[in-house]
Amino acid sequence: MSTEEKSLNFIEQIIEEDIKNGLPQDKLRFRFPPEPNGYLHIGHASSIALNFGLGIDYQSPVNLRFDDTNPAKEEQEFVDAIKRDIEWLGYQWAEERYASDYFDQLYDWAVLFIKNGKAYVDSQTSEEMAAQKGTPTVTGTDSPFRERSVAENLDLFERMKNGEFPEGTHILRAKIDMKSTNMLMRDPIMYRILHKPHHRTGTDWKIYPMYDWAHGESDYLEQISHSFCTLEFLPHRELYDWFLDQICGADKVRPKQREFARRNLSHTVVSKRKLLQLVNEKHVNGWDDPRMSTISGMRRRGYTSAAIRNFTNTTGIAKRDNLIDVSVLEFCVREDLNKIAPRVMAVLDPVKLIIDNYPADKTEWLEAENNQEDDTAGFRKVPFSKVLYIEREDFLEEASSKFFRLTLGKEVRLKNAYIIKGESVVKDENGTITEIHVTYDIDSLSGSGTEASQRKVSGTLHWVAVDHAIEAEIRLYDRLFSDESPDTHKGKDFLEFVNPNSLKISKGYLEPSLKDVKPGDKFQFQRLGYFTVDKDSTENNIVFNRTVGLKDTWEEKGKKEENSINNGLKEINKYFKVATAEERFVIESAIGETLKTVSNFSLLQNTLKKNVNNTKSSLLFSNLLLKYNTALKTTDVDLELLHKLYTMSLKSESPYVRYEVLQNLKRDSANLNEFKSQLSDLKNSEKNDQVLATVSEMV
Fold first, then answer.
1. Where does the Glutamyl/glutaminyl-tRNA synthetase class Ib catalytic domain lie (predicted)?
2. pLDDT of res. 6
């Protein structure tokens, strides 16, 4: 591998060091080892890109090996989906392998372990095993079955294999060290009994190897040189090596396990268990729902394989877990779609625009550029007539000078067409505008070269001619979770953060060039975002998914909420400087209204943590945060932090802080009893009449 053009990440440095120390480059072999118990997600995409990328860089084979050791959770559907996703990402494996290919060899080695005193059959219950295994700070104790004779172990193990025992009656354990500081080394399980059919071996086997036993040995059998996995497997490396120690020969490559950090993506979950829960409980419509973090879901939504590969390259390989904002991925998607997606016009929230001085029986076919980013994309014809649809938000009857779209008495340009001027509106009985009437400048056609066509106006609107419009179903997808890290909050179910607005379905009107689109076709709806034709589309019902907007609205929302917090902190200082209760009431009300608008749970949690300190401004702000914001409840706050806030506030020099914490304690009946003695002390020492009245009432 050439190192002149780029710096090496730590994984590549490991490989280069091994080559330098004598590993022949033609012995390099990598693998991607998914378990077929779910669909691949964005985290897997990083591992896929790493392993297959190394194969490309070093011109070395990469195996696709399914670790299919648990038939209770594995299905052929998942195998097929995984293969489809990897191929779609643009990678090709050297060999397709399965851990089940090696069941016979793994069993034979397990028998050898028993004969060599390295394994035994344990007949304890799972509860008894858990008790004797100890804890990280308490060493384990030997199983009462640890010293079974070789003959008895061989007999029991064979009978386990033959299906003579119910599930849970026996397991095979490696005999290592019950006093090890690494809990995984305390006689780990190698085999368990499962009377379930396997998707490849059927009912041939009644016992199945555990992942830790099968994984390293499969690597060895395939002569994988480097086994890369995520950081949670770091404690497993010692066991990986111990198992290899028992079987490795000097004449073969010994696999090396090394770990890299998992890529966690904001506003998503990547736990297969949680993804399965989302599917099973119908929070989404299957594994390929466009809101899911699965590769299948992202493909259906309209993400491109090039964008995902670019994302994995952009974020790189790290040694520490970190949370990557999903906006980075969305940027990569926009960047790729901007190059390849044809521009078209669609209206999603229509209102009729009638050009009063345009002939009723006239239709012009105007020329429109397909993609200004692609010189080869060419042009298309779009129909223009007297009655059009425009977006409702593109018109205001009365508007400020900063509104750069259509209003009465103001001129704007219709994209690829004419300059128009707002004249009047028609409303229904509810006051809703049903028609906007305009006039057009007949000499202002875009690209005509006339003096009128060169005139500058403040805005440009997209439109669709009503008589030629195609009706379509538009699925407006947004982030599935409202919180950036939904499954990391202690005491909170990640499902509490499911975004209720993650899918909105509406009717849209499209220009007629889209009548023959096919599933997977991608377009930029001008001024609206990037959209992809969904697989649910039929000849009579075209369905478009919003892939991503033209800009990151979540970033704007996040900045707005951060500004709300910061402005509230600034305003709190004024609270202590004003002279009257009326002035303080006005300031508190303004802060309270601001705090009510903040919904980012992580931001609220972090704000509270930062402001529980012994300053009156911070303590007052923290109490007002609990008082006014309904997204953050006292039960969501770490108990130690909450008690610290209450304790500091009750002892604060400021009577305003003491008063507000009393109000919060009155509402927090679960914690009130913990502070009875402090309340009594405060009653005896309090000088402020308002605080004294409140605490006296409470005591």
1. 27-338
2. 62
Residue 518 annotated to the active site: no
What is the distance between the alpha carbons of residues 382 and 673, in angstroms, rounded to a whole number? 72
The catalytically annotated residue of 262, 301, 380, 616 is: 262
- Name the fold adopted by 346-462: Ribosomal Protein L25; Chain P (2.40.240)
Same fold across 102-211 and 346-462: no
Q: How confident is the model at residue 608 (pLDDT cuts 50, 70, 90)?
A: very high
Q: Mind spelling out the 3-state secondary structure of 644-662? A: HHHHHHHCCCCHHHHHHHH
Side-chain-side CA neighbours of residue 122 (13 Å): 26
Model pLDDT, residue 491: 84
Active-site residue flag, 653: no
Q: Three-state DSSP class for 379?
A: strand
* Distance separating the N- and C-terminal Cα atoms of the chain: 75
Q: pLDDT for 38-78, tens place per residue? A: 999 999 999 999 999 999 999 999 999 999 999 999 999 99
Indicate the pTM of the whole model: 0.87
| pLDDT for 1 beyond 60 | no
Sheet strands side by side (includes 171-174): 119-122, 171-174, 189-193, 207-209
Which residues neighbour 350 within 8 Å (Cβ) at sequence distance 6 or greater? 389, 390, 391, 392, 464, 509
- Give the ranges where 59-90 is alpha helix by DSSP (H): 76-89
CA–CA gap between residue 62 and residue 235 (Å, rounded): 25
**Which has the closest alpha carbon to 129: 139, 140, 114, 118?**
140
Name the nearest CA neighbour of 342 among 521, 537, 164.
Answer: 521
Choose, from 31, 200, 272, 405, the residue flagged as catalytic.
272
The percentage of residues in the chain with a pLDDT greater than 90, rounded to a whole number, is 82
**What is the fold, at CATH topology level, of the domain defined by 102-211?**
Glutamyl-tRNA Synthetase; domain 3 (3.90.800)
Known catalytic residue: 262?
Answer: yes
* β-pairing verdict for 433-440 and 350-355: parallel
pLDDT at 469 over 90: yes
Task: For 307-349, list the strands marked E by DSSP.
Answer: 322-324, 343-344, 346-347
Catalytic residue chosen out of the listed positions 16, 35, 369, 473: 35
Which H or E run includes 260? strand 256-260
Which three-class secondary structure state does DSSP give residue 572? Answer: helix
Judged against a pLDDT cut of 50, whether residue 2 lies above it is answered with no
Least Cα distance to 408 among 427, 418, 444, 399 occurs for 399
Q: Where are the domains of the chain?
A: 102-211, 272-339+474-551, 346-462, 555-698
Strand ranges (E), 311-455: 322-324, 343-344, 346-347, 350-355, 364-369, 379-384, 387-391, 395-396, 406-407, 411-414, 419-427, 433-440
Helices (H), 599-654: 601-611, 616-628, 639-650
- Contact, 487 vs 271, CB < 8 A? yes
Q: Which long-range contacts (CB under 8 A, 24 or more apart) does 625-629 make?
A: 625/595, 626/664, 627/592, 627/660, 627/663, 627/664, 628/591, 628/592, 628/593, 628/595, 628/596, 629/595, 629/596, 629/598, 629/604
**May I ask the CATH class of domain 272-339+474-551?**
mainly alpha
